[in-house]
């Protein structure tokens, strides 16, 4: 039984869950639905408790009235019967039975068909006496009631249901002992509760209908009210979405003077201010980039002329004084630097202007890495920094722009050699299904905490007082970062004071794919744990 | 998990909500309070029933007890009498379908004849008085003869007595009736519904007092005995009272169905409910403590008290009950030399003048006997005198009437060879009766005389006539026997053939009769021992009391009684009679009416000259 109920409950719960799934989704998505649902549930609870109270109370009042009336009548009837039977002191007197019948007949006043009641006189302690009743009411008198009335001599009542042929009917059975000259007998006054039952049913139906109507009304009302509030909010949200998507001239409609109108007005004001600011900033940034680009271009023409002159002088330096020759050499070197700087500036301004294009093709990265290391072989040998290369034996194919990748790697390895302080530089290539990665590790002075991000800033120097040894322009890492970003890849730095630094380039195998992880670790395995040196390594995620 | 709990709770709440309100199919037994207490204890019977068989230890007491065995509730009568009879004789000893027992008056103590083996034959010399039925009414005797015999067996001093050979019929002695029954008068309305007519019944003392009113109402429903029926108007045949009358109770509550108020044919303009109420009031008079409430189906319940209407409903009643009534004396008169004189026993010592109507010329002379009666009518007090006179050997009736102060001229009529004492019928007092030529005649105050045919056997032998105070019953003396007849009063007095019964008297032969109480007559005559005697006998003969013994004089030819008021208690019967040579007033130490007691009589009157004393009946 319990198991069956449990099973039923489980099945219902499962079915409920099926229904509740989308409901739950809607619940989370829609404020409107949530408010209506909460209103419906709360008002249902309130209304049903109220309905229950009203129905119960009215039924109780009905029943109490009937009970009191029956009790009053029973008392009168009992007095009458007691009076009528007082003079008999022997139960076997013939007239006792006759009197019982007469009393029952008189008290029933024609029975319920004629507006009277059902009255039964029983004498449970007098075996001689038969029950006086208009019809057999014994099914209505329970043993408990009979015991209470006859044995305990208590006035008691009970509601019983019985079918006398016209459908099951409820009866209120009130019993009282009747003192007589020959010992107590029992009088039962039985009232059919048909009217009361009907009335209670009507009240219940009415209350239920009213309650349901009220709940529905409340639901509709709350839906309407919520709609009133939620619609402008939705409009605001949509407008904000469009705004954030770049449609800066989106505005909300302002209607009336209420709070929502105020919200719309404020929102519109905010949008206007934002738009103005953004336009201004964009303009400024555009001007700045334009300036840089223009300056670079304008510088290039005189520089070409200067270069040609310098080249001429440099070629003829042997004919000059050694001091002048030295100056010509210096001029030549500085012009090289200047030219490099100008090239980098132009490159950066191209990135800034958004003109940089990715020319991706499937490329094996192993020869790319090897070529970069080989080209820097002279510089490293001069600096006394050996380069250790760790490459896989199989080709590592990825859709990349080889020119840009080579530029990134050249930059990274060059920097490592420059800051290697004579210690070896390690270059490693790793790959997996979705990404390829190259790490470049030096064992120089390393980076201080926080510098992992700063290294990618334009013209950033770790120690501004330190003189530039090599001809770095200060824009290399910025350009590399832009190149990596163009690929949809990451360029990250790790460093710790005294442990050197490691840079990792991670690129997706297929152009346009989104990176989730890198095949190589950013932090080298020989690095000391961060707590030991109290430096937390940080990563910089660069997303396309 | 939390959500499931909430859902389950909500489902449970909904289920409770839908089934919780509304009337439940079945509830526990609800205790309301203690049952009613039995209240004051019931009367537990008005008196004890007759002694049982084992109560007797001698043959005399056993015989007495056997003759009393039937006294009690009718449905137990037969069993109880049979209980006295030995088992082998019980079989054929039965009462019949109706609970009736023969009432017998013992003339002498029983005679016991020893048959040996502790067996005696009991011989009784009895008068069969009548038959007591379940309605407490004593009807005419069914048994003839005066000898009853039965056999009893037992050991003297032991309580193992048995009747071994019972008498033919079941018997009840009149002594037992007097001892174990209470006489109770019930009333029926007269046929013209003008006054109540009493009927004597006997309530068994054994019957619980609380049930007696119910019993009486039942008797009323069942109607009067046969002989009285032409005189009265019984309740409708369909009248029924389905409720007991609770008693003792301040307000006596009687309920009838609607048929009880249905007027009999030929009667209209009568408030039937009021009359039924008065009938009940009178019949239940001794049980009414404060008032009586009569509920009829479909009728507002009405309450009755002992008011003027109550007292006037019964013509036999003179005045509301009160102590002054008990001492009141009737006006007494006597004849001396054919003239009426007051007697000293009257109020004020008889010093008042004679009633005005007797003072006219030629009225108060040559009178042989007189009847004087008075009745209050709607207009005034009505007085009438019927005087028997003799002229030229023929008897005549001189009638005088007076309404208030106006006296009508005397009327004389008739001419008979013999004429007895005249009587006035009351309620209304518009007719009188007189015996003339041994026949019964009725006369009006205007002097019209008509013969009243009487049932065969009585007619033509009438010696004396007397009327009950209600005017609906008469007692007639014929061939030395007393009969009572119920009469119908219309334009004329009519007697139906069957409407009479004999009054069994203890006398061998009666010579004069008069009504002395509602249900009793005074009879003068010769006893079985041939001595003159005056008895007061109930008209069913069951109760008899000898009034005067030891008068050695001749036959009483003139006997008058002043009927007792039904509501005044503590009365003594007032009787006067005269015989050859003397007149007697039984109220007093010296019964003989002396010459000096005749107020205003001429000197030298001897007591022998005082004749035909009479009362003014009012």
Automatic annotation (TrEMBL), chain B:
Organism superkingdom = Bacteria
Task: Tell me where in this chain the GerMN domain is found.
Answer: 185-300
Kindly list the organism's lineage: Bacteria, Bacillati, Actinomycetota, Actinomycetes, Micromonosporales
The cross-references to InterPro entries, in alphabetical order and at most eight, read: 6-blade_b-propeller_TolB-like (IPR011042), GerMN (IPR019606), LpqB_C (IPR018910)
Its keywords, alphabetically, are:
Signal
Supply the Gene3D superfamilies for this chain. TolB, C-terminal domain
SUPFAM superfamilies linked to this entry? 3-carboxy-cis,cis-mucoante lactonizing enzyme
Q: Which PROSITE patterns match?
A: PROKAR_LIPOPROTEIN
UniProt name for this protein: LpqB family beta-propeller domain-containing protein
